[in-house]
């Protein structure tokens, strides 16, 4: 491990150590807590360690998670397992075509006894909200999540209401090609920090699922961390050191998606901020208090791909956002310190 750190081009130089606010001990504590939480979720979601760790990375980066896959692959199980492993308040919303916005955010009702209007909060007033099959609801209902996902509050009848903190939305959706689904608008897709696909399990994991399904229900999962710990770990991630060349590297990657010939709309500044936050958490989960280019490469696909709007002809030819992200990495050189340039 020490050899790798010494030879890496963006390892924090000793003369800059005073600028790093997190020490090695703090990074190792973060990594240990992160691993305990991931291991707990792994007992329920078998054979999906990478997806689980990406989802937890989004949670500690204070972002929201979108899980897309065909029915029956464990999207809801993963969302419930994450909620169960955090000892906070959680709610589940089953999205259907007849669901109303007030069913999500809450409603103001006149109380005859008191002679005043009273606000009755909806299920979004929880630390973790599972939005199950979000793209089965109408666009009007989907938009009810826009404000609360971005600002952490709900406005009903002109009055804002703050949701509990920390606040996380874990949404699941079926592929848009399936019947009875409504495509999420780009503005709402951009508010999800990562979009992940659970996928089918490998054969060995699927055999284990068949052997012990009743033993691996999220209801039997004990909480590993509380919401205060999640908030503290999220705060730690804001103090991860980022070398100056990496800022330019991130912007150049975003510009490469914006100037790609197959892209109509590239990655937004919000997407850049999201990748920076996610890479900071990912670095801490590896026991480091600073970001390296490999952190950016590991997170760019899940963070960037769903934010890229392809040109119509490119979409018809089967191009994907993931391919655009891969092209961006081929076009942009990995930054090196001035002495090695």
Automatic annotation (TrEMBL):
The keyword Nucleotide-binding applies. Keywords: ATP-binding, Nucleotide-binding. Signal peptide: none annotated. Residues 64-194 form the ATPase AAA-3 domain. Pfam families: AAA_3 (PF07726), AAA_lid_2 (PF17863). GO terms for molecular function: ATP binding; ATP hydrolysis activity. Residues 256-326 form the ChlI/MoxR AAA lid domain. CDD domains: AAA. Belongs to the MoxR family. This is MoxR-like ATPase. It comes from Glycomyces artemisiae.
């Amino acid at each position: 491990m020490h050899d790798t750190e010494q030879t890496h081009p963006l390892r924090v130089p000793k003369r800059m150590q005073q600028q790093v606010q997190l020490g090695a001990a703090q990074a190792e504590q973060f990594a240990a807590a992160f691993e305990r939480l991931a291991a707990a979720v792994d007992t329920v979601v078998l054979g999906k360690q990478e997806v689980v760790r990406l989802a937890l990375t989004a949670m500690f980066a204070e972002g929201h998670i979108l899980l897309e896959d065909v029915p029956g692959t464990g999207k809801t199980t993963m969302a419930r397992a994450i909620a169960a492993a955090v000892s906070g308040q959680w709610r589940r919303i089953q999205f259907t075509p007849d669901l109303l916005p007030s069913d999500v955010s809450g409603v103001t009702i006149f109380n005859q006894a008191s002679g005043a209007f009273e606000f009755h909060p909806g299920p979004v007033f929880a630390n973790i909200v599972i939005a199950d099959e979000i793209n089965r609801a109408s666009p009007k209902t989907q938009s009810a999540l826009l404000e609360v996902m971005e600002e952490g509050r709900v406005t009903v009848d002109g009055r804002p209401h703050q949701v509990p903190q920390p606040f996380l939305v874990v949404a699941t959706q079926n592929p848009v090609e399936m019947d009875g689904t409504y495509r999420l608008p780009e503005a709402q897709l951009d508010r999800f920090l990562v979009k992940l696909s659970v996928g089918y399990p490998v054969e060995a994991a699927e055999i284990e699922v068949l052997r012990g399904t009743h033993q691996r229900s999220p209801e039997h999962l004990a909480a590993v961390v509380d919401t205060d710990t999640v908030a503290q770990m999220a705060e730690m991630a804001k103090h991860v050191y980022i070398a100056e060349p990496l800022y330019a590297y991130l912007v150049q990657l975003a510009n490469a998606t914006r100037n790609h010939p197959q892209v109509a709309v590239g990655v937004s500044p919000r997407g850049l901020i999201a990748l920076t936050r996610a890479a900071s958490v990912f670095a801490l989960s590896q026991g480091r208090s600073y970001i390296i280019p490999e952190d950016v490469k590991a997170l760019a696909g899940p963070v960037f791909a769903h934010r890229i709007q392809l040109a119509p002809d490119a979409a018809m030819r089967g191009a994907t956002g993931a391919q655009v992200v891969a092209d961006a990495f081929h076009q942009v050189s990995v930054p090196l310190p001035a002495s090695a340039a």
